[in-house]
Amino acid sequence: MSFNIGLSGLYAANKQLDVTGNNIANVATTGFKSSRAEFADAYSASKLGVGSKTVGNGVTLAAVSQQFGQGDVNNTGNVLDMGIQGQGFFVLSDNGSLSYTRAGAFQTNKDNYVVTADGIRLQGYAADSTGKIAKGVLTDLKIDTSALAPKSTTLIDQGINLNSSASPIPLTKPDPSNPAATIPNAPFNPTDESTYTKSFPTKVYDSQGNEHVMEQYYRKTDTNEWTMYTLVDGRNPYDPASATPLTGTMSFNSDGSIKAMSTSAAGVPTTPPGQYEFSVANNTFTMKGWIPAVYNKTTNTWGPNGSSGNPDGMRLSMNSTTSYNTETARMSQSQDGYATGILSSLSIDSTGVMFASFSNQQSRAIGQVAIASFANEQGLEQMGGTRWKETFASGIPGIDAPTTGTLGAIKSNALEASNVNLTNELVELIKAQSNYQANAKTISTQSTIMQTIIQMT
């Protein structure tokens, strides 16, 4: 019996050496989780239980348990390298078969899917064309490298202050020959700065993503009254052959807020009915049906460029426009149009949302990484390749976006290192070796005793 006890000790020490050696071998493996050999003593027993004077039968290997402690997350500089700070696993799909990993070294394949080094696809949530994440259904994450389609300008929102103390440039002046009468003052001329107070250019885009410049000229015509002249590329927005601007007027209350706004019908086509419009409502000018223009160098003339503006109109919100006693200036501006964009960079935030940035200064979400958690991580089945599979013991995975509930956060440009503590493992190696030698000694001693007994007979 003593031989069997010693043999079980040798077996246990050998398993401890195997586990420790495997940990040491994987000290540099990304996302590796160390293992621990767990042992239990063995006793022989009958139906009535174990006697009070029973000697043990040795030791048995109870389990080799994974230690899912956090490994160091170190920067790599590769945007598709991801580490999980906290609880959770990346979800991978191999033709529909799901597995789970902490190793976040990803890349793209020839079809632009995000995959591991051996081609298994990372799972997450897709985004629609507007960048809205559609949570609920897992899909293969893909980096869409196609061009971002252009968007015509529909709304311009700018905050302008028109100096209430600026010198007026009246539309009329006294008639020198008849002081009781008036005659037209110098008409607006975009090339003559004396005919307006200030101008503000704004980039706008047509339906093909072509850039145009909408120039607005502000002329203070009386106390708390201003006239706005609008040209696009220096031309009438409805007639590229004409340089006659669209005209709008604004009056202000004594506190500097807008009192009233109006437009002139001059320069706005009337046919076909409803197609063209320059109107104002809710402190917003609407220029409907504008015709983007292009200059023909051969004929030295202006004409349509073949694209169109937004059919619903390009709106200019003046809700932030004021008239205070300070410099005439544009304090803020935004417009919602843009040209065609080419993918220029990718970033991933802590919630796993993948943002694509384009050459037209636009950015949008193109997907979100999903991570999974288990009620019993120890119940996961190891597959190799630093991956695990779900089992009955682990329970079903809870899959959601990073930072949801107890799920950890994503750190991009970084990888989680192995959680193996090399110093501890080397100490365990020494202990396992000592255990092996001690158990071998018990067998050697038992052998000596047996020889003594045999010699006595």
From TrEMBL:
Domain named Flagellar basal-body/hook protein C-terminal: residues: 412-456
Limits of the Flagellar basal body rod protein N-terminal domain: 4-33
GO biological process: bacterial-type flagellum-dependent swarming motility
Region span, Disordered: 167-195
Entry's localization field: Bacterial flagellum basal body
PANTHER family noted in UniProt: FLAGELLAR HOOK PROTEIN FLGE, FLAGELLAR PROTEIN
Keyword set, alphabetical order: Bacterial flagellum, Cell projection, Cilium, Flagellum
Any one of the GO CC terms: bacterial-type flagellum basal body
Lineage, opening ranks: Bacteria, Pseudomonadati, Pseudomonadota, Gammaproteobacteria, Pseudomonadales
Keyword hit for Cytoplasm: no
Classification via SUPFAM superfamilies: Flagellar hook protein flgE
Residue ranges annotated for the Flagellar hook protein FlgE D2 domain, each copy included: 181-338
Keyword Cell inner membrane among UniProt keywords: no
Job of this protein: A flexible structure which links the flagellar filament to the drive apparatus in the basal body.
Main location: other
Family: Belongs to the flagella basal body rod proteins family.
Start and end residues of each Flagellar hook protein FlgE/F/G-like D1 domain: 84-143
Full protein name: Flagellar hook protein FlgE
Tree of life domain: Bacteria
InterPro entries per record: Falgellar_hook_FlgE_sf (IPR037058), Flag_bb_rod_N (IPR001444), Flagellar_basal_body_rod_CS (IPR019776), Flagellar_FlgE/F/G (IPR020013), Flg_bb/hook_C_dom (IPR010930), FlgE/F/G-like (IPR037925), FlgE_D2 (IPR011491), LlgE_F_G-like_D1 (IPR053967)
